[in-house]
Amino acid sequence: MPHFSSDGIDIAYSDEGAGEPVLLMHGFASNAAVNWQSTGWVAMLVGAGFRAIAMDVRGHGESAKLYDPRLYHPSLLAGDAANLLRHLGVGSTVVIGYSMGGRIAAFLAAAHPDSVRALIIGGMGLGMVVGIGGEEEIAAALEADSLDAVTGERGRGYRKFAELTRSDCRALAACMRGQRVPMTPEALASLHLPVLIAVGTRDTVAGSPEGLAALIAGAEVLSIPNRDHMLATGDKAFKAGVLEFLARRLGPKANS
Question: Which of 10, 82, 139, 238 is buried most, with the most CB atoms less than 10 Å from its CB?
Answer without folding.
Answer: 238
